[in-house]
Amino acid sequence: MELEVVIGLEIHAQISSKTKMFCRCDNDSWDKAANVNVCPVCMGFPGQLPVVNEEAVHKGIKAALALNCEIAEKSKFDRKNYFYPDSPKGFQISQFDEPVSFDGSVEIEVDGKKKIIGVTRLHLEDDAGKLTHVRNGSLVDYNRSGTPLMEIVSEPDMRSAEEASIYAKEVQKIVRYVGSSEADMEKGMMRFDASVSLRPVGEDKLYARAEIKNLNSFRALEAAIKYEVKRQTELWAKDEVMEKAITVGWNEDTRKTYFMREKEESDDYRYFPEPDIPPIFVDKETVEKYRSEIPELPSVKKAKYMNDLGLNEDDSRILSADPKLAAYFEEVVAATDDAKRSVSFINTILMKYLREELISVDEQKVTAAMMGDLINLVKSGDISNNVAKSEVFEEMYASGRSAAEIVDEKGLKQVSDTGAIEEACKKVIEANPGPVADVRGGKDKAIGFLVGQVMKEMKGQANPGMVNETIKKLL
Fold first, then answer.
1. One domain for residues 13 and 151
2. Do 208 and 59 share a structural domain?
3. SS3 of 123, please?
4. In the prediction, which pLDDT does 417 show?
5. Helix (H, G, I), strand (E, B) or coil at 14
6. In the list 195, 307, 350, 382, which could disulfide-bond 8, CB 3.0-4.6 Å?
7. Residue 250 sits in which domain range?
8. Residue 321's closest CA among 172, 184, 183?
9. Can you give the pLDDT at residue 438?
10. Which residues of the chain have pLDDT under 70?
11. Which residues contact 371 (CB under 8 A, 6 or more apart)?
12. Cα(436)–Cα(430) distance, integer angstroms
């Protein structure tokens, strides 16, 4: 029997508001001591009333619009009851039957083909705390309790682990572009629940699924789905198809899923409207205002870089993935009018440093204007490409000084004096009769050796184009 894989994703992304969802606590708890970023509201003390964070709602709606969702004129919050140690209130404030948005879609590209993944809804909620399991028990940190989240629920439209990963990466780029979430998975700002089931090819029925909880990297997402598909395929082969939906975890060490519990359904959570929070009303004028603020999205930028600037797909994908990097690149291109040289300096030189230090482009010293000045020095012939990428850029990155200042101080300006270059070329030709004979014998590659020797003779400061032409003329 041929089986088809059916995958749906729930993506939880932390909204990048200043404060938590229903209180005034700082929304940034990264690397802070446990249980210092809390208050009576997010700790669920009796008599404390939650107040909706307007900024979080706005950013949730903007993300929903970027995901092509419809925005509900009226939505409400509900209590989702479950009793876990890291949930101080004993319930989560979420949205059940009247979410803030619904009926969206995301276009992805798989093996060169476009595919639409349906988005059931984007709804708003607050997060629980964090459990750390130790030898004799578990430690609870409530700093994250009350953090504003948007939960993006897909339709079961994905058919492989690779498709699920591509979709998740596209969603990450979109929520970053609109400024709704930093979606930094290293800081726990984005995680996935993946629902996986199988069915005979040709059937539309959805069979019992396994929901893999709290996957916190794209690598884990793909690996967990692949393992779960393998596990369920073996069950089908033994005619032991799952009868009930289950919740499973992912063990990174064993690279296997493990059973946690039978899957809870909506009845188990005993949803009811949150009595302390009134409904949210969003008029059409406000929706259109938010829609007008949606920037050019990554898929559009990628296509523009390829079609309008002539970049290859890999470079376009890298540059369009991060809104800060895309803005940096576009500013450099505006300063140089040279997209391909800008790509060469950014993707091969600057990105090397950013990856080594795990920082973003706005956290380093070489501004887009400074990078543009460096590239323009190469274009004008004042310095060579090699000198610019090694000596000059390296010093710029370390010190934050301008390219012109470094070139003048170190005497790196390229020599374009025809007399000096011709004299060096004659000296090299006289000292290398073998390669000279090869060039005269038609072996054009040998000229590269001679050019290299002249550059060495002139300490790398000769104009390589002029050197090449001079050697050809002399020979």
1. yes
2. yes
3. strand
4. 60
5. strand
6. 195
7. 3-289
8. 172
9. 80
10. 414-417
11. 328, 332, 335, 342, 345, 346, 350
12. 9
